[in-house]
């Protein structure tokens, strides 16, 4: 472990996951080890150690967190290479395995494993392995699920994902041409199942478990399937989504405009759910109203 | 209309001032002012104890705090006060006012959309610590909600997707 090199703990990383301004998450495990693993950290890209220098030179420098298997020399070396190329790189303490038995200190391993980081399952069949941008396709004129799923994919599965909205009659043809995965349409690998919507299906497909995302899933499902009793904010999400769809006739513009709303809803699911807002509490202390 | 309030589309950009860390009413009112009263209006968010002194210094109208010319009255919130003061006769705005009032005064039963507006507003406030950024981020939300109030109130969303044509399910 290199003490001079900036690092961060799994719990500090957990707090950053899904945020719109989250740093890039780079999986730098060696090729064989990466291939043998069926998990990734959420929204991570893979770059093998020997390709880091090229990646660092090719891409625009930004905030990045690298992780390897255990947070030892592989991750540190990658972070060092990135920093030399002008990136603000940190490495994840403990790596994706949260420490190596017999090597890392017991109390470190215990701390790292006490609140395990969420991970996602690689799904090569859906185009998601962390190695190249995934492509997704669905029906045009999105309202809720076809916006919520792209948000979920961009923030937690693949930040480089591309989305295509096409007329339903041409979906199969376009999916083949574009090599894109259909979603939120019958017969697609990711779609509604019984009372569960496509947002639920994405969480299930990638085996992603986070309490705040489960709360958000309830809201999306309630809005998308008109079951407002599921959770308070569902009717409001539906109204705002239908309104956005009126404001934005272009589907990509609709998606861009809606992403910050889902960021806000997710922030509420994560942090703000206990908070209420009412006029009497506005009263500043000591003011004669 | 209280004489202190500017006319519609004033010759000089109007200035408005309120307490820092806006969540609902202090963002909804600026949206209403920008879209219906003065597109060039400017907004200032300052610590509560400085609102009136700053208002005097920069020539701004205080809103959404006790003793301000635009503020809560009884069960009505500042958004209601502006709609009434400017006699904005728009059914969609009346519907939006109920949603805002429900979210702002913790009466989430007033409109089914109020809890969602509250959740989104608190979430935006969590993300945007800068009040001007919060305002900019919230404007599209009110545009969308107003668009829904205007045209989409009767519109339903289809729920489950239709069949993928030609797909072998």
Overall mean pLDDT of chain B stands at 89
pLDDT < 50 stretches of chain A = 280-289
Low-confidence parts of chain B lasting 5 or more residues at pLDDT below 50?
A: 159-169
> How many extended strands of chain B?
3
Could you give a short account of the major beta sheet of chain B?
3 strands, parallel
Helix content, binned percent of chain A: 40-55%
- The topology string of helices and strands of chain B comes to EHEHEHHHH
Mean pLDDT of chain A: 92
The largest sheet of chain A is: 5 strands, parallel
Q: C-alpha Rg of chain B, in Å?
A: 18 Å
Shape of chain A: globular
Total beta-strand segments of chain A: 10
State Rg of chain A: 21 Å
Task: Provide the β-strand percentage band of chain B.
Answer: 5-15%
* Helix vs. strand class of chain B: mainly alpha
Q: Strand arrangement, largest sheet of chain A?
A: 1-6-5-2-4
- What is the helical fraction of chain B, as a range of percent? 40-55%
């Amino acid at each position: 472990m290199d003490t001079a090199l900036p690092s961060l703990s799994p719990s500090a990383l957990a707090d950053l996951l899904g945020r719109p301004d989250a740093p890039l998450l780079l999986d730098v495990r060696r090729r064989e080890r990466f291939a043998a693993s069926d998990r990734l950290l959420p929204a991570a890209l893979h770059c093998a150690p020997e390709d880091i220098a090229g990646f660092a030179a090719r891409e625009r420098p930004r905030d990045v967190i690298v992780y390897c298997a255990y947070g030892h020399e592989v991750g540190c070396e990658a972070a060092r290479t990135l920093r030399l190329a002008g990136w603000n790189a940190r490495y994840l303490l403990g790596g994706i395995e949260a420490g190596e038995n017999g090597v890392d200190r017991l109390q470190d391993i215990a701390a790292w494993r006490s609140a395990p980081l969420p991970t996602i399952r690689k799904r090569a069949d859906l185009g998601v392995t962390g190695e190249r941008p995934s492509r997704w396709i669905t029906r045009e004129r999105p309202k809720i699920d076809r916006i919520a799923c792209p948000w979920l994919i961009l923030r937690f599965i693949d930040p480089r994902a591309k989305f295509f909205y096409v007329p339903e009659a041409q979906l199969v043809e376009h999916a083949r041409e574009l090599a894109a995965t259909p979603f939120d349409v019958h017969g697609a690998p990711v779609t509604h199942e019984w009372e569960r919507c496509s947002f639920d299906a994405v969480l299930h497909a990638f085996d992603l478990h986070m309490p705040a995302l489960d709360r958000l899933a309830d809201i999306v499902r309630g809005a998308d399937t008109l079951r407002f009793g599921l959770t308070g904010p569902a009717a409001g999400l539906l109204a705002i989504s239908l309104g956005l769809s009126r404001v934005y006739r272009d589907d990509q513009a609709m998606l861009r405009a809606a992403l910050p709303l889902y960021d806000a809803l997710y922030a509420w699911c994560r942090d703000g759910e206990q908070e209420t807002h009412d006029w009497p509490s506005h009263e500043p202390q000591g003011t004669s109203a | 209309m209280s004489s202190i309030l500017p006319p519609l589309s004033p010759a000089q950009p109007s200035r408005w001032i309120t307490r820092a860390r806006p969540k609902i009413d202090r963002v909804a009112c600026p949206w209403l002012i920008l879209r219906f009263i003065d597109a060039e209006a400017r907004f200032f968010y300052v610590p509560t104890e400085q609102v009136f002194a700053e208002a005097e210094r920069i020539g701004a109208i205080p809103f959404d705090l006790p003793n301000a010319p635009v503020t809560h009255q009884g069960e009505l919130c500042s958004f209601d006060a502006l709609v009434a003061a400017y006699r904005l006769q728009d059914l969609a705005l009346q519907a939006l006012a109920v949603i805002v009032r429900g979210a702002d005064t913790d009466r989430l039963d007033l409109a089914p959309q109020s809890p969602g507006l509250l959740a989104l507003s608190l979430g935006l406030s969590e993300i945007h610590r800068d009040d001007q950024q919060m305002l900019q981020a919230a404007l599209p939300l009110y545009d969308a909600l107003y668009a829904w109030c205007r045209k989409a109130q009767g519109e339903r969303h289809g729920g489950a997707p239709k069949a993928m044509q030609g797909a072998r399910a």
